[in-house]
Amino acid sequence: MTFTTKAKFLVSLAIILLIVAVSSTFIVKPDEQVIVIKFGDPQRIIQEPGLHFKIPFIEELVKYSKKSLPLDIPAKEIIMSDKSRVLVDTFSLFRIADPLKFYQRARTLSRAMMLLQQQLVADLNKTIAKVNFDVILSDRRSEVMAEIVSEMKDSAGYMGVEIVDIRIRRADVPTQISRAIYDRMISERDRIAKQFRAIGDERAQAIKAEANRQSTVIIAEANRDAEKMRGEGDAKAADIYEKTYSQNQKFYAFYRHLQAYEKALAETDEKPTFIINPKKFKFFDQLSQ
Amino acid sequence: MDAYHSKQDNPWGNSGSAEKKKSNVEDFISRRTKKIGGKPPFTFPKNISPFWVIFAALFLWLISGFYQIEPYEQGLVLRFGKWVRTSDQGIHYRLPAPIEEVVVVDVTSTHKMEIGFNNHNESHMLTGDRNIVDVNVIVQWNIKDAEKFVFNVNQPRMAIKAATESALREVVGKTPIDTTFTSGRAEIQNKTKEMVQRILDKYQSGVHIAEINLDKVSPPDEVIGSFREVEAAEAYQKQVINKAESYRNTIVPQARGEAAKITEEAMGYRASAIAKATGDVAYFGQLAKEHRKNPALMETRLKLETYEKIFKGAKKVIVGDQASSSILPHMKLPNAN
After folding, report:
1. Residue B235 in contact with residue B156, Cβ under 8 Å?
2. Which of A234, A240, A275 lies at the smallest CB-CB distance from B319?
3. What was the ipTM of the complex prediction?
């Protein structure tokens, strides 16, 4: 009996010690930060992960995340300085940097996010309304973002929130303006298409004309060369004739005359009629004697 | 508690006096033991000391610290929530809960995220020359730092998506539309990847962007027809030019052929003229040579030969002396003979 009583006592003691141990320690994970609160009054802030102690039953804990927290707000239409409308969709990351301020001024995450969203929308309107569309599309986009961050800094910092980043995720034209852009794109494409066709026709014409010119020139040059060669041939022939005939000028005249008679009188299609007086024509001398 | 103890297979059940001694803790331990021991529990000695029970429980608690890490994983060991070490693949030991715990992270798998597919709000974006282009993108990423990935950013996928959209729009927003379809594609991918990586590093997200691929870059559906028309016009241009070139390639060689023909003919004419002259002259030369020997004889022969040829087929009218002064009447009577 003594043993069981002693055991019961020991076990009860162990349980009580365990309960005290559990309620006087707490674990802080790497992505957590904790405020220890005594009767609603913040005592200390613990951001270091590990095992920590508190006064059991008296001190309470408020845990906040140490992670960067995304804030994704719906796209908002803003009128810019050049009166064009732009649909801005932002993505932001915030971090609770000062849990004490956060506890005192925002208390819950959802409330903080709501306040940050309101502030962000206001700052977006203010900043983007000052610039025109080209700025959003150009390198200065990051300047705009930086300006929004600096605008946000104070109000976020008041709640103990640090801005990790604010990005313009989308800056698009609203639907009715994109309709106008489509129309412009279509007319631009039509222009390019027509240009392609026109240039094609133009080049084709030029190539054909060039080809025609080339071939005309080729033939003309060939004709020129041909005439030259013919002339050469005739000249050479004349030269050859001249050399030989000049040596036998009298005989050539006689011989050539005979050839001419023959050609003119014998080699014609219509046979000539000769009226001959044999007494006066020596050809017949032999007959009359 | 009592319902449990009334069961027949309770290892302590057959000892009535022992039952009364048991505490909550012993009961708890006994449950554990039974659970682990299996259905037919090994029978404890009837008068087992609580010391042994506690010892056994302690033993089981201690061996619960073994854990296994697969080759594609890393284990982050936290002691009371504080990171102490990272373990790679294999069997490892940690101090049992609640002293140490392990967060297992898949570090080598590549994750895929598609942006802009079937969502025009995501995929339509402005180009540098203020056109609208439809872009679908696939992001492939993995975890390069498990600790950062687990503890630094809430919803890291959301951050990856937002960073990609933001960076892609910024890059495309500086590129003219025609470049996005062609040469600019690779550059957009590279620049976007670089920018997304920079943003995610700034967030300390532990994410590595393996690849950003533009899956589709095309004009929006609303205008695609006129872009096709441009392609058709471009094809037309090529075709018309090709046709003209093939015309040129036909007509110019034809002209050259004709030119060659003309030239050859002329060459032939020249050669033949010279040859003929040479031949004529050779013949005449021979004749002249003979003529010099006896001019009168040859002249008579030639004359007579010519008479022969002239008179051979011709019509002949023979008249007397008196008529010779008037030829005309005879000319009118071709049928008289």
Report:
1. no
2. A275
3. 0.71
